[in-house]
């Protein structure tokens, strides 16, 4: 590839955009969207594509899209998938990425949010699944539990989460363990219903079914 994930991961401008966006979200009381989240989404997207048998080129594009998907937060949280997609396309062109590859990354970033997006190819599908299943306690940036909104409570209540891919059965399964003294399974399903529907459609784009199990209960 003309531009690699390793180069993107070490790119000063991209890393500054990610961290600047996260500092804004922290000020506004949102959950963590730092380089840690970017790297986690990147690696998960790559694992999904690899375990489902996609080639190295698509896997690399999935990793790049995963790492860059939230750079639009540096502009504004509102409409961040679209501003991020435009930023990413310009940056990748400047770095010398082939136009078709830059467009694939741009499209995946532009479609990763549940309000306006949906999976349109395997790269966008892997990004959506990786992003929406990153639920963990240390994503909460609000230091005052009494001020937690429902997103904070859900993430803070997450004791463990995992995503498994069964290539033979064509099933992508998320398992979540919640501290129900902080957040019940119904609280989770209420706030994340739209995201889980998005994950189901993303799995279908990959020729799979999406399964969600929370505290041992199958929700979808």
From TrEMBL:
Chain ranges passing through the membrane: none
HD/PDEase domain boundaries: 30-145
Pfam families for the chain: HD (PF01966)
InterPro entries: HD/PDEase_dom (IPR003607), HD_domain (IPR006674)
Protein name, UniProt field: HD domain-containing protein
Biological source species: Mordavella massiliensis
